[in-house]
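hey can u check if this looks right to u? its 84 residues, i copy pasted from the old doc so theres a chance i mangled smth
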Amino acid sequence: MSKVKMVTALKKPSSLIHEIRLELVGTWHLFKFSETLQLHMEELLEKKKADQLTLEEVAELDAISELDRIFTHMNAMLAAQYAN
């Protein structure tokens, strides 16, 4: 008898590096997701609300969310520098 082992591969935030851009917002340059990645994240969040994410999508949303937290921190640091 063989056992089937389910392994969820975690997606690394660095795998999304091609979806990162700098955008001029007013006089500040801020880190942003590409429009494609932003829309995809919104789709995944909608599926999450409906409890319809696959395991692969959960891993993908986790990676995007981690990148979003990093961007939020980096943009806050930039904003603080611009303010001074």
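Residues 74 and 82 are 12 Å apart (CA to CA).
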